[in-house]
Records
---
Amino acid sequence: MKVHSTISPDLDQMKDWRRQIHQHPELGFEEFATSRLVAELLKSWGYDVHTNIAVTGVVAVLKWGNKPGLRLGLRADMDALPIQEATGLPWASQISGKMHACGHDGHTAILLGVAEAISRLHRTQQLPGNGTLNLIFQPAEEMGFRGGAERMIEEGLFERFPCDALFALHNFPGIPVGKLCFREGAFMASSDTAKLTFTGKGGHAALPHLAQDPTLPASATLLALQSIIGRNVDPNQTALISVGRMQAGTSANVIPNTAELELSIRTLAPEVRDTLEHRIRTLAQSQASAFDCQCDIVYSRGYPVLKNDPEMTHLAINTAQEVFGVDQVDASIPPLTGSEDCAYFLEQVPGCYFLVGNGDNGHDAGTRVGPCSVHNPHYDFNDACMEAASTFLVSLLSRYFNPNEEPEA
Ligand SMILES: [Zn+2]
Ligand SMILES: [Zn+2]
């Protein structure tokens, strides 16, 4: 049986849902209306729907066959960003200061389209063998720290809805529309932050010998941080420390009491992540004591390294190449230094997180100011990538539950 030749997701419906969600963006853990829309649609198609997981998360379950079979998870994120939309599009955000600037409106609509198509297969008894499909709509991907995925897992997601494999996607501007991009192994970076507060003793700028100036250890640390990348990390590994904020003092004639640095720290390997934390702590403390100051460190671990399972990644690549041809597929895209909440799911379940091309944002009546990345006020999810993304996921489901199926000619 060739599922992808017998069923097509409804593109017009997906576009309508996408634009409806786009007009009503909701921030992390506040996706009440989006979650309600998702749950109502899934119920209407016969799914067993579970709501309020991690506040607004939804899981929809479909079982078929009379024996237990494999259990597949497909995941979409639902949250928007605190950005004032500047696209001027007819379906632009109606909520001031909130915007779907990362395309999670599109991801949600794609998974709804897949859900509806698979419910048709279910009704017509065309689903292969025995199996369970768990559709996971997660809240709060954009938090960076303690997001929706971690919280869904803490609330028993995989105990309640066990999955043997899990797949998820993200749109990516700048990649041709609908092109599918994969990478086995570490694909997206861990993302941690550190706040370093150097405390000395403030005083008059004219009397430095009576003060302990905290700007000196802060400055020395700022420069020395890059030596961690150059001297402590294997040159073949990815590691990144950016100082996003440095702050001290209020006036030219005052030596401040404190000086602060805030860092963003990213890697593609857990052992490098540990090295960076250890070295940042040691360096900052040593610099503080070298200048007779103290250093207080608040080190926060955010999303972990996202790792794609080799077997599941190969299944996804083979399916994509069979359905769309090799030119529409990049089987080994370079890793990204961005981070993703889905990493928590992929720590628990083997699977693959992949990208679908969003094009150059020059689509739709040419109203755009040119290519722009996600998280930009001019960004818009490209509805034209939904056909490839949804068709691919339906085909992937077919191949996952029916691995001996002959590829479509
Ligand atoms: Zn984002
Ligand atoms: Zn995103």
---
Amino acid sequence: MDFLRPGGWEEALAVKAERPGALPIAGGTDVMVEINHGGRRPEALLDLSGIAELHALEHEPAGAGDAPAGRVRLGAAVPYTRVIGELGADLPGLALAARTVGSPQIRNRGSVGGNLGAASPAGDCHPALLASGAEVEAVSVRGTRHVPIDDFYLGVKRNALAPDELIRSVRVPRATGPQQFSKVGPRNAMVIAVCAVAVALHPERGTVRTGIGSAAPTPVRAREAEEYIAGVLADGDLWERRDPIPPAAAGRFAELVADACSPIDDVRGTAAYRRHAVAVMARRTLRWCWDAHRSGASDPRPEGGAPCA
Ligand SMILES: Cc1cc2nc3c(=O)[nH]c(=O)nc-3n(C[C@H](O)[C@H](O)[C@H](O)COP(=O)(O)OP(=O)(O)OC[C@H]3O[C@@H](n4cnc5c(N)ncnc54)[C@H](O)[C@@H]3O)c2cc1C
């Protein structure tokens, strides 16, 4: 197996064009597990870990990409530790999700770009990126594509990257309202999600976005639930009045989120349990977000911020 170590971004793109079979490696927390367990034997590894552009965090101004509060351009190899330490205020949903990934060692190496590259339905970034309305910057020697996150996941561990493309960054709109993430697993750390839910309020648009992980072949949004709850909030003038969401409406929202799932039975959980847990997490994350919107508090969860449901 060749080990290719480009000196910079342009060289990395040229190598990927020349050798599309070369497997990118950033933190290596997915790639090395697959290689060590014999699940993968790529002809070459393309080491992206030393490329400065992929470690950059940039703040784009308000209005960029139709984002009223601006966006964060998160280099593909930025590790979770930095997302947690530096982006908790700008991207609270993603930072909450990052807190639940693996262990400190994994969070020091693992990256959002690697999560996107792996495109596992259980990847923890995906629900938060869907709820935020992120965009993936996919680059090749042919040019740059900005792929909306809704179009990025194509199937189980399949994404929209062409064989010669690399992820340069993910652009995530800065939060304009409360965001939450909840994940179910047998314990609070070092655990792959049995299922996960993210909710983000977008008060300036009067919309609510969702993301569901590990409960369908790809991460998915619950669009019917989003439309339903946006209608409830608009009809009751609740964004302005900041009254509680009626329990029946929160319950219906939870049901519709569960309806958006198409889970399977596997070693981590049954389909029925996943549907149930997704509904519970949908109701909770919506309540946490709405309580924060009403009170202006950043994290009103009764658990005091524990990331798991
Ligand atoms: C013990 C352990 C616990 C874990 N716990 C969790 C968890 O709780 N939640 C979770 O979501 N994940 C978890 N993971 C999986 C892994 O840590 C994450 O998916 C992480 O985000 C991968 O990032 P990485 O930089 O290490 O990716 P890598 O392993 O380097 O790459 C992963 C994939 O992305 C591709 N890739 C990487 N960078 C690019 C790029 N710039 N352009 C195109 N393709 C690219 C690679 O080719 C590969 O297919 C865990 C892994 C381990 C070993």
